[in-house]
Amino acid sequence: MRLLHSQTLSLYEPPYSEIPPYAILSHTWGEDEITYQDVRGGTTRLERGYSKLQKFAHRASEDGLDYIWVDTCCIDKSSSAELSEAINSMYIWYKRAKCCYVYLEDVPFDKRHLPAAFQRSRWFTRGWTLQELIAPSTVIFYASNWHPIGSKTDPTLQDLILQTTGIDLEILSGGDIRNVSIAKRMSWAAKRETTRPEDKAYSLLGLFDVNMPLLYGEGEKRAFIRLQKEIMEDSDDHSLFAWKSMEKNYGMSCQGLLATSPTPFIDGGNTISCPDWNATTPYSMTNKGLHIELSLRPHDIIKDIFLATLDCKLGQQSSIRLAIYLKCLSAAGNQFCRVKPYALEEFDCKSRNPGIPRIIYVRQRVLHPEGQHTGGSRKIRILDMLGIFRLIDVSPQGCWNDSTRTLNLRDVDGEGTVLYQNPNMTLRFAIVVTFTRAGFCLCKILNGPRMSANEQSDWFSSFEDKSGQLNIGATRYGQKYRIKASINKEKGKGMEGFVLDVTTHILMDITS
């Protein structure tokens, strides 16, 4: 660890066992920050960032601290080995600091508007500042003129920080972060940004007490998956799998159990880990996917779809567990992938049987090499004379033929969705298409792509003389429509597949 003397700004590299008390700076980078090369070359006074360094050093010296650490100039970033060591050690360096000074250069000291300006500060949006807030026991915030605002243990500031970050008051007061579920810790990072995409993962190493080599250029997805693999090496917290995809994908495209960024954990702030102490099978990543034991309950209708119960829950409800959808990929019944990644179900283990525990592989990537059999396929031709409504999205997109308006679903896709919207984008509805174990086509109308049970129609199918219908819109807005749809087998010589007939009926429209 390399330090600066708070009075002379000269570099000092103490032996590891003799590191003196030091202050540490947390800030957002601006133009002309002082670098390690600037300090060594004595050109610091020529840089605009010198003023920030000088005032920080002066403040630390006044507080009786002879040494300081600043990320801009105490790391030789031209050395990849030193940079990797520093990033893997940074959480500990912040934790061991006598005091962390947080400089908010975009927050003027104005008592009247201070709370709002404090919460709007760019500092709360950056990835690296999350660990800089949590790790040190003493954190003092300073306004742009270096006037003290308060510490993270001040009750007034704690409330503002909680509202802004979602971080528990217990953690802000020095509680053990290891008692917080993985999903909850991830949720604190979900909205934060970093300049380099890989740093979204690297900035979280300390929060999960893991170390790994830095591979700039690997991209955000690979870096974040590596991070989660490292977390699994020392944790069996199922909340790692309790995320919801934010991507615009309404079908059953195959996913893995690991997220590709912190963003899908955005709603994980209330997730609590509740490990099953009777479970004996450890899980690990293999070349066939994640090898894990989960309780699987077959879907009531859809073939090869299961609800997998996780050992985590929302809030303090003792019998409610979170569950995700898995699709069986193999005839042997041991290869799975995650589907409907936007869904995270609440499952009551007291009133419903969670299913049989099974040891399975969940693939992180599902590849279907050319020529390999991936099951059958079925065509759904769509007849949609819908007036003002237009088709705006189809999932999976690769299965849609726009010229024939046909959805060609493979067994591996599991589910297809067509999404419609009116011109002013105030109303939208979706129709989900899937198949039963007996091969019948099954449909449902949703008021929007992802709605609750009371905003969707009943299932209707190709083996019943029954259509589905759903009213959408609201009388108070002057728009109300009835959506009707039916699914039938194609008729005629040489015809195969199904026909989905969708119509709309105006109940009220005073806006068009």
From TrEMBL:
InterPro entries: DUF8212 (IPR058525), HET (IPR010730). Residues 222-250 form the DUF8212 domain. It holds the Pfam family HET. It comes from the Eukaryota. Residues 22-106 form the Heterokaryon incompatibility domain. Coiled coil: none annotated. This is HET-domain-containing protein. It comes from Zopfia rhizophila CBS 207.26.
